[in-house]
Amino acid sequence: MKAQAADLSKPIDKRIYKGTQPTCHDFNHLTATAESVSLLVGFSAGQVQLIDPIKKETSKLFNEERLIDKSRVTCVKWVPGSESLFLVAHSSGNMYLYNVEHTCGTTAPHYQLLKQGESFAVHTCKSKSTRNPLLKWTVGEGALNEFAFSPDGKFLACVSQDGFLRVFNFDSVELHGTMKSYFGGLLCVCWSPDGKYIVAGGEDDLVTVWSFGDCRVIARGHGHKSWVSVVAFDPYTTSVEESDPMEFSGSDEDFQDLLHFGRDRANSTQSRLSKRNSTESRPVSVTYRFGSVGQDTQLCLWDLTEDILFPHQPLSRARTHTNVMNATSPPAGSTGNSVPTPGSAAPPPLPRSNSLPHAAVSSAGSKGSVADGAIAAGVSKFATLSLHDRKDRHHEKDHKRNHSMGHISSKSSDRLNLVTKTKTDPAKALGTPLCPRMEDVPLLEPLICKKIAHERLTVLIFLEDCIVTACQEGFICTWGRPGKVGSLSAPSQATPPGGTAV
Description:
Layout: E1 22-27, E2 39-43, E3 48-52, E4 57-62, E5 73-78, E6 85-90, E7 94-99, E8 110-117, E9 120-126, E10 135-139, E11 144-149, E12 155-160, E13 164-169, E14 174-180, E15 186-191, E16 197-202, E17 206-211, E18 216-222, E19 228-233, E20 239-241, H1 252-260, H2 269-273, E21 285-294, E22 298-304, H3 306-309, H4 390-393, H5 426-429, E23 443-444, E24 448-451, E25 457-462, E26 466-471, E27 476-480, E28 492-494
Parallel strand pairs: 18-23
Antiparallel strand pairs: 1-2, 2-3, 3-4, 5-6, 6-7, 7-10, 8-9, 9-10, 11-12, 12-13, 13-14, 15-16, 16-17, 17-18, 19-21, 20-21, 21-22, 22-24, 25-26, 26-27, 27-28
Region (Disordered): 324-366, 388-415
Keywords: Repeat, WD repeat
WD repeats: 179-211
């Protein structure tokens, strides 16, 4: 029997707020059931509310008196593997770790330093009894715009208005690596399904791919004409290919095929990835698919392919949608057209199978900027965004969150403690590993750029059957994948009352 679609005109819960606006939210997939779900909502005045929209219950309000932080909540997420811990980021540049079982207290909290490194410091809350917040993180300068936990929950990637991506070991509170935007602030961040790569986007109109293992930028993508607001990997079309490169003509039908490509082979991805390091003569090609949406109202789809991930493999054997050639660097503060360098000794460019008539830039190639040993061992089991199976899977997690803060050493052996409060000059970062010049790393072209809204886009979520987007106008759109109900040319839409949605 075919399941009926939800009636989007009849929400299960509706709340109207006066004097403050919801800015972000997160469901606890670990504890969610058909009868109950824990939802955190962050607000523009700094508060965080815990509600159950199914039971119509309001559990708690955190930072109610705004004694902890008065600034806008920019991101809120449950700590992976925990039923009670959650992390909140503010436009003040601070993050706070809360426990739903603890109160916030009636006076402003007092802190003592736990650990400090370059451009970050972590404090614990001094009080006679345990109270929120458990920890206070101060990261970079300016607003902390977004953070994301790695798939295994052990690492935390943060992007800030100062233009830096900072990746921390969450439990030991140590800095793993950093990256600087080409210019401007970074607004969004996401992890690949296997945790090997991080993609960030922001005010430089670029998407930047950073290798977690090598702690370096391995590629940039240019296709947006304005700030990039959301980046997300599509675990259902991340694929392993042994076939020839797929040609792309740029039509709407091909756009739908691109969304679908590789999904029917998702179940065999792990086993086929294991061949990547085998002794078989024919190489197996890995492709990560990710998307981005921006203030230019466009959705861009990108492939991170074998020639970028493993540049020492012969390019003729790699399945790719990326053109490889040298390019000159645009001036700082600009993401203009790239021009091939005259007289360069680069290999002949690959066929421009994904070229678009309105492509903003040419593609640039790698100059051996990725470490020789950067070979991925395999992609772990992909996480899904559905609620029903998270409950069944959470007991399989081998990484358990330690609820005690005592295991974090106050005397870190991390080399960062040798550098006290030195600040990185963003102007001096260009041309260094923190921020390579445009010609020093491959430049990706999007598989497709498509205008899908009239106002700036604010949400991008990849589900098995569809893609979900939302814009500032208040429209929530579901784009059906090929073979499923609906299509990219006719999305289903839901507009909440007042034009805003949590």
